[in-house]
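WARN no homologs supplied; continuing
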Amino acid sequence: MRPAYRRRLLLILTIIFLTGCTPQNGQPAATPLPDNPAVVIQDLDITTGQTIFVPAYSEIHYASQDRTIELAVTLAVHNADFTYPIILTSVRYYNTDGQMVREYLSQPQQLGAMASADFFVDAGEQTGGVGTNFIVEWVAEQPVYEPVVEALMLSTSGTQGLSFTSPGRVISQIE
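OK structure emitted
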């Protein structure tokens, strides 16, 4: 192998390795959305928005009250508007006791027309429990189609898999 080719290959493998690494101690407290600019809410003329409650389950009981299966949870937020962006102002994760575990956004983030964002809770993170939930808050400067917000729970073990979804429900609306 030529030295120049070997150096390029080594550089590419190093980049792949470094960009593929994730923290071993869980997710950071706040996660910026990739390729979405931060937004200053005070600079906007808000005309619509919602607060959405999304039930989620980081574990579920099976066979008996004492036996549970740990589940990975992905919260998906889909901007269903063909033309206009929405601004996610807050994505909060709560445990079974109603205590906030994590705020995913450090600042409001724009979600472009027909774009999606996802937020993840690892199956091994047992801070949630059976009755976890998310609260998603969004706003827009013009009337838009409501976003589709849902949680996907998933577990795999051996040759068996379990998955189900839970739709979000609007609990507050700006009109």
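The mean pLDDT is 82.
OK
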